[in-house]
Please model this.
Amino acid sequence: MKKRYPQLKIDFVIRSEYKSSVELNPNINKVITISRDYNIKDIRKQLAQNNYDVIVDLQNNFRSKLLSKGISSNIFRYKKPYFNRFLLVNFNINRFSEIIPIPKRYSRAIPNFELDKEGLELIIPETLNSSLSESKNYIGFCPGSRHKTKMWPAEYFIELGNKLTENNYKVVLLGGKDDKQICKEISDNINGSIDLSNNDNLFELAVNIKKCKTVICNDSGLMHASIAVGTSVIAIFGSTVKELGFFPYGGENLVLENNSLSCRPCSHIGLDECPKKHLKCMKDITPSFVLKETLQFIDKL
Model:
């Protein structure tokens, strides 16, 4: 938007825990943070003082509609594919005519607008340096995810990591506060690996991800962060599918998934446990298969 209309002033409203994903972006005029339990009336009053010509609502839910009510007469809202998603998740009926990544879906909320070709962007402080050296063949592991059905088993990461070590790669564990336990478990069982998980410092994670030849991850936030800083990703999808839109956008990427199951997807965001109790969507994707795909993928980079 800023490229097309340089005179624009773009303010970005975001939950405080995700602020670092946009706060250094030079195309944004002001980042307005809200807490998880924010008061809608107070924030709406604050926003109304800015006299916006246009509001773009990418959430399009009850709270976002209340938040934007009365701020501008010109509001564009992202139209979520509720019905198609419901049919796919509950009845395995696929009415998605094409697989469209979420950034492109979001952009279509604005009439006659198209994204540029540069993909995602995550701006890291120039003064921040990685603790990793320049000369190693680092492969990043991001084993965490908010939902269990989107997590490749820890023992699979361990087996894969040791095989990669035998192939002269050095494994780096990456994750936030909720991932520290699984990162430690995996790192403790991979010879020579480095655990760089932290307490949700996205900048620190991103600068270390940039040092990796590729990142092997689940369908998670760090999958998108890796692509945004220019690192290729190999994403292992379990209970979710690409049709839902949340797959790597831009950059070099490979998605590995078990397409033989009629029970996928069982959710559009993931679940705490497999409804069928077998988790075949993840367990059938073996470490030996991922190793073969990883080595072939890296050779083509």
Notes: The longest strand covers residues 232-237. Residues 227 and 251 are 6 Å apart (CA to CA). The chain has ten helices and ten strands. The radius of gyration is 20 Å.
